[in-house]
Structure formats: C-alpha cells, structure tokens
C-alpha cells in the first residue's frame, strides 16, 4: 500500500515547488512532503558526499543523512529560495567534517599523494583524481550565492537554464550569464589550489553521475529528518555543521555590517565610539604632536597615502604592499569570496595594475585607534593577461597597532 500512496502523492505534488514542500513540512510536519524533498535531491547530495569521501562509504552515508537531518531542523529558516543550493552547501560541509573526523587529511592535488603518513600505505587511499573532485566541491561551496546556485542547479543537478530560472525566480538570461561567470570563478579558485582543469572538465566532475543513493539510505534520511532516528555520528555531524554555519554567518554579518555602518552613516555613531572629550587640563598622551597627528584631516591624509600604497603595490603583484596588511586581514571581494591575508596576496600575484583613481574619499573615525576610509575606485588592470576594467565602492577599515596603522578589513562592491 505504501508504494501506491507514494505514487499518488508524487503525482499530486509533481508541480509543487521545493519551497512549498518545505513550508508544508515546517507548518504541519507533513512527512510525505519531506520524503519527496529527500528523494528529489538525493542524487545530488549523494554525489557530493560520495565524491568527497570516495574511500569511506560509511562516512558518506553519515554525511548524507546529516544533510537532510539539518534540513528538517532548519526547515522554517531556509530562506534562500533554493533548497537545492542550501542542501548542497550543507552536504559539502558535512562530508568535509566527516572526513576530518575520520582522520583523512586532504591530498596535495598537484602531487596526488596523501600528506598524512598514517594513511599513505592504506590501499583505500584517495587517488589524485578523487581528491581533485573533492576540492572542486569544496571550492564551489565557497562561491558567492548568485554564482554558486546556477552551477549547482545546472551542472550538479542537471536542470536546464529555463528550469533553473524557474526555481530561482530569475530571467533565463541572468541564469546563463551567472552560470558562465560562476564556472570561470570556480576555475580560477581551483587554480589557486593547484588544480588546473578546463571549464568542461570541472562541469564533468560536478555531474551527479554517481550511483544513486540506495532506497534504504534514502529511507534512513527520511527517518532521521521526520523522527530524529539517527546514529550519534549523524546527530553530531548535523549539529556541528549547523553550528559552523551559524558562526560563519555571524562573522560575515559583523564584517559587512561594520563596513556598511561606516559607509552610510558611521559619523552619527562617533559620539558613542569616538574618543571622549578631554578637559583643558588633561593633555593627550604624546603632547601636541600626537594630537596633531590624530586630527581627522591629518589621519585622512595618512590613511589615504597607505591606501594608495596598497593599490600601487598591485603593479608588482602586491609584494610591496604586504607590510600594510594585518596578520588577521580579511578581504570581502566583489564576487562574494572571503579571503585571508595569504589568499588576498595570492590573488594579487596574478594582477598587474595599469591605472586607477580614488574619488569621493570619506574618513569615519570609529575609535582613537580604528577608522574606515570609503571611496570610489576606478581601475584598469590585467588578470593573468586578461584586460579588466572595474568601478567599485570600497570600505577599508584600518587599525592602529603597536604605533602603526594597518589594514584589517577590505570590502568592495560594484558600482556603475
């Protein structure tokens, strides 16, 4: 009887969107709706888990179940409008977490050798090709959402551009354009990881052509989501992934929020965050010279000179400007990527700046030892030989450490 009921439910729900099914489950604990979601996305989720854990089917199964358990627990909070995209990110995080828990250390994809001596003689050690596939999935999960979703839906799930557009609520042309740019961004990210693949090879790696998840595994995922019946390993994975995603979201919100406050209204906050007014008989440390150096007009000049030094360093691949970047420097790039100091310098190594101009400069003093410089940047440069022109709004946060001003957060957004 159950197969008959499932067939009738599938037929009735064939035209129902993922978002509607998720709302049904969140509102009324509709187990049939959740089961249909699992079966709709099982192939893509299993492909990601299996590619990242090709030598450990048990860990891949745990990651698969944890992904759908996480969906059940966050069904009322998945607001991206694309369930497939959300599931993919969770699946990649879960699989990577499972791999670390099992003690499997990532291979160096350029050498194809296991960097963990304890696994180097394991007959089931990952091959270079398998590791490359894992790196592809890891980097795809890090792409900005507007570029990641078309790649996930078209290359991983196998939807046409029109079907992906219907799911995302975007024009077909927007999906096509972002798909091309997403693939190219992914290819470049892979190159920085030592994986050189043509775009066609990347899409081939992503194709969900693995053996589909077994019926038993799919049922286990449904049970985990609807009843919480899961092994301790699956429960731990789901909780760990959701916790990590919450922390990552808070970090990004904090960084972007600070830049936005500085850019659109930070001056209004200066009474709360700025230095307290000193009495006439309470001189500032360092005397008149220190007060003069800290004056707003002087500080704007100092930070603008440092900012220009950073841009000028792009003429030699960033080498001459490395000393103005803090060790905990973070860059939030136009494509949504978040780069550390090392990642940012690696990116600049392939850039050669030809010309630039900085206009509409504004200084916002947050504290005596922290300030934000906002401005418009007009750029012309080459990236790996390709000519590029950009217009950006930039928020650059600086902090005074050990008597020296260093850049701690760089945030760019595109402008016309």
Structure notes:
Helices cover 55% and strands 17% of the residues. The chain has helices spanning 2-13, 18-28, 31-52, 57-73, 83-101, 128-142, 145-156, 161-168, 172-192, 199-206, 215-227, 232-264, 270-273, 287-293, 296-312, 341-348; strands at residues 325-332, 338-340, 351-367, 370-383, 386-401, 404-414. Residues 1-13, 104-126 and 251-293 have low confidence and may be disordered. It has a six-stranded mixed beta sheet, sandwiched between helices. It folds into two domains: 2-116 and 124-253, no CATH class; 270-274 and 285-414, Nuclear Transport Factor 2, Chain: A (Roll), CATH 3.10.450.50. The chain is of the alpha+beta class and 416 residues long. The chain is elongated, with a radius of gyration of 25 Å. The longest helix has 33 residues, at 232-264. The termini are far apart.
Radius of gyration: 25 Å
The secondary-structure class comes to alpha+beta
**What's the total helix number?**
16
Number of strands: 6
Give the number of domains.
2
Beta percentage is 15-25%
What strand order characterises the main sheet? 2-1-6-5-4-3
Average predicted local confidence, pLDDT? 77
